[in-house]
UniProtKB/TrEMBL annotation:
UniProt key word Oxidoreductase: yes
A GO molecular function held by the record: flavin adenine dinucleotide binding
Domain Acyl-CoA dehydrogenase C-terminal: from-to ranges: 261-401
Name by which UniProt lists this protein: Thermophilic desulfurizing enzyme family protein
GO biological process: L-leucine catabolic process
SUPFAM superfamilies hit by this protein: Acyl-CoA dehydrogenase C-terminal domain-like (SSF47203), Acyl-CoA dehydrogenase NM domain-like (SSF56645)
Keyword Oxidoreductase: yes
Gene source species: Trichodelitschia bisporula
Length: 427
């Protein structure tokens, strides 16, 4: 990493890496969730300081690697945790409680790690799944659909990607990058994994936004990056054409609701982190209001503080329950259809609307709770040292990824008119 782009030092987490190695990889769902909670506690200790420093999260990604969390979805025979998405979502949520940026990075990497299993051939899914799991790789993705697709040209034995993206989460600290583009003169989309560290991938190092500051979500230029036809996911390397039954079926669109539920879960985790931090501040530092006519000796005896915390708690519990239900629905869909890839449009749409419901609820509750906790902590809680502002900044930043109003409309058409959502880059 250039000195022009400062990065965090992985050595700070060496003792934790040694402990994780000694404890070994978790073997149960609860074990994985507990490991994620452990990582969250480590990150929470100095999250406010790291947020302010805005350094490239090299150390934080090393912590994810040493914890094993990048392997949670991988097959056991590859050294993975063999857990369903429902457990991975819980892990993302737990990490986000401690640091929203790192919860987001974990979620994106897990999503991209499954790209070949959704849009690739069985052989490609096995190859990339094993490689990513065994080598404990962190994955970035230069896919942002709001920008023009990368242009893909053909050359002897492979395809060449060129273009640029304004956003590329985690790319700077990734081992592999997922590229997506359209073959010039056609409407054929191509996904491929490529090595991140190569001359043709040039990062802008321009991520300096108000929230999620350690996600390295800045721009990237892709300059004639080559991948062999064997790595073009879902394509026959001999005919150079999509393989029937791979890319044109509803199953191939499942990356979209899967990542939308990644979003909902790290929003929820950030919100839970805010509520935990506010509780700690209130019980430790908030003073009772002396001019209300019913003076209490402690802020925790004040009716309005108790009432507001009760409302926060109920709202967050409701989102948690909804997110868990959506995660169970998506996990069941994958379990039932991953072999035959025969999910129906109706089933796909039904699950997508469970995800949309969770996304809407997590956004609305997240923005409200992370903002309103200041009303129950007090004026001193706005100090930079308290760090309560980072939770709102994190939810506010990513909740603009795709307008939640369109998710509400989508749900309205599904409920009122019985219309299935049309698969798009955001549905």
């Amino acid at each position: 990493m250039s000195t022009l782009h400062p990065a965090t030092d992985p050595a700070v987490y060496t003792p934790h890496a040694a402990r994780f190695s000694q404890e070994g990889q978790p073997t149960t769902a609860q074990g994985w969730i507990s490991r994620a909670q452990d990582v969250a506690a480590i990150l929470a200790a100095d999250a406010t300081q790291r947020d302010a420093a805005n350094a490239s999260p090299v150390a934080e990604v090393s912590l994810l690697k040493s914890s094993g969390l990048l392997r949670v979805l991988g097959r056991a025979s590859w050294g993975g945790g063999a857990q369903p998405w429902s457990v991975a979502y819980r892990a993302i949520r737990e990490v986000a409680k401690g640091d929203g940026s790192i919860g987001m990075l974990l979620g994106y990497s897990l999503l991209w790690s499954q790209t070949a299993s959704v849009v690739g051939t069985p052989a490609q899914a096995a190859y990339w799944g094993e490689k990513i799991t065994r080598e404990n790789l962190f994955i970035g993705g230069a896919v942002n659909p709001r920008d023009a697709d990368l242009e893909v040209t053909e050359e002897e034995g492979g395809v060449v990607f060129s273009g640029s993206k304004h956003f590329n989460t985690g790319g700077v600290v990734s081992d592999l990058t997922v590229l997506e583009g359209v073959i010039a003169g056609t409407e054929k989309h191509v996904f491929a994994f490529v090595e991140t560290r190569q001359e043709g991938i040039v990062f802008a190092h321009n991520w300096n936004n108000i929230g999620l500051r350690l996600t390295e979500s800045g721009g990237v230029r892709i300059n004639a990056v080559r991948a062999p036809w064997t790595d073009a996911l879902g394509y026959d390397p001999h005919t150079k054409a999509p393989i029937p039954g791979i890319l044109e079926v509803p199953y191939a669109t499942l990356l979209l609701p899967t990542i939308q539920l990644v979003f909902a879960n790290f929003y929820l985790g950030i919100t839970q982190g805010a509520l935990d931090a506010a509780r700690a501040y209130t019980t430790r530092s908030t003073r009772p209001w002396p001019f209300g006519g019913d003076v209490k000796t402690a802020a925790t005896d004040e009716f309005y503080i108790l009432e507001r915390y009760g409302a926060f708690f109920a709202s967050v519990r409701a989102v948690e329950t909804l997110a868990d239900r959506a995660g169970a629905e998506l996990s069941t869909l994958y379990a039932e259809h991953s072999e035959a890839r025969d999910v129906s449009a109706e089933r796909r749409g039904e699950v997508a609307e469970w995800v949309a419901s969770a996304k809407v609820a997590a956004t609305d509750v997240g923005l409200r709770v992370t903002s309103d906790v200041f009303e129950v902590t007090g004026a001193k809680a706005t100090s930079r040292s308290a760090g309560l502002d980072r939770f709102w900044r994190d939810v506010r930043t990513h909740s603009l990824h795709d307008p939640v109003a369109y998710k509400r409309r989508e749900l309205g058409r599904y409920f009122l008119l019985g219309e299935l959502p049309v698969p798009t880059w955001y549905t």
